């Protein structure tokens, strides 16, 4: 028994405990979800349309209240102390909500200040925008002329400058071309290596397997499988995903995993 490891165990940056959401119309979108994201980890949530991924993220952001259970950001209850919790989180969604009539620099400046950071100069903004790969000719152009990938870059630049310990991403690579998607994944890998705790939803099974320390599969609000990167080695995640969606039970899992070979 390694008690040393027990005592130095890190506290999670993001934690869902028995998180359950029943919407007003009776739809049970989340059913006793438990998950943890430690510093320096990426957790990828997979699951079909309506599985409960966005619901999970929206509870962490306090956009909606859970029916029962709790969501913690850096140990702070996201729905009981939302303002305090939000200082510990940055959020990038598929459709980054920025101002079309502001330039890239103006958007970054506005949202970084809104996030409580007032100590940055223009050159800090330029450094962040360079880091995410926005071409410098675009820095002073209005966002309404930007492609989706360019807007996404501004969103992640804001998240980087906010420098919060935890990051939430709802389908961040959806609609990006393969090169932009790859670049985005490389960036969040860097942020993970800097110690951020990242929870992302995605439909991109291959990228999830490549980048995530933990992959969770949600089906009808239930976490039907959770695997570490080591457990997924040599496993065809797409096949595993399809089997779980088809209703495979936990008991079937060991043989299933052993029989799956890398595609
Ligand atoms: N505001 C709402 N009111 C009622 N039901 C909702 C609401 N938002 C989501 N739902 C329902 O909750 C379930 C989970 O939805 P959610 O958006 O969390 O899924 P998701 O995993 O993000 O799906 P997708 O991959 O399509 O984004 C679905 O059945 C959805 O119809
Ligand atoms: Mg969603």
Summarize this, please?
With 263 residues, the protein is α/β, with parallel strands linked by helices.
Explain the overall architecture.
- With 263 residues, the chain is α/β, with parallel strands linked by helices.
- It folds into two domains: 10-88 and 165-175 and 186-263, Rossmann fold; 98-163, no CATH class.
- 35% of the residues lie in helices and 23% in strands.
- The protein has helices at residues 3-7, 53-60, 82-86, 104-114, 122-131, 148-162, 178-193, 205-211, 237-245, 253-259, and strands at 14-22, 28-37, 41-46, 68-73, 76-77, 89-93, 166-170, 197-201, 214-219, 222-228.
- It has a six-stranded mixed beta sheet with strand order 6-7-8-3-9-10, with helices on both faces. The chain has a four-stranded antiparallel beta sheet with strand order 2-1-4-5.
- The longest helix has 16 residues, at 178-193.
- The protein starts with a helix and ends with a helix.
Question: Strands, helices and their partners?
Answer:
Blueprint: H1 3-7, E1 14-22, E2 28-37, E3 41-46, H2 53-60, E4 68-73, E5 76-77, H3 82-86, E6 89-93, H4 104-114, H5 122-131, H6 148-162, E7 166-170, H7 178-193, E8 197-201, H8 205-211, E9 214-219, E10 222-228, H9 237-245, H10 253-259
Parallel strand pairs: 3-8, 3-9, 6-7, 7-8
Antiparallel strand pairs: 1-2, 1-4, 4-5, 9-10
Bound molecules: adenosine-5'-triphosphate and magnesium ion.
What is the structural class? alpha/beta
CATH fold name of the largest domain, please? Rossmann fold
Query: Can you summarize the main beta sheet?
Result: 6 strands, mixed
Q: Name the ligand types.
A: adenosine-5'-triphosphate, magnesium ion
**Beta-strand percentage?**
15-25%
| Mean pLDDT over the full residue set | 90
In N-to-C order, the SSE pattern is: HEEEHEEHEHHHEHEHEEHH
Globally, the shape reads globular
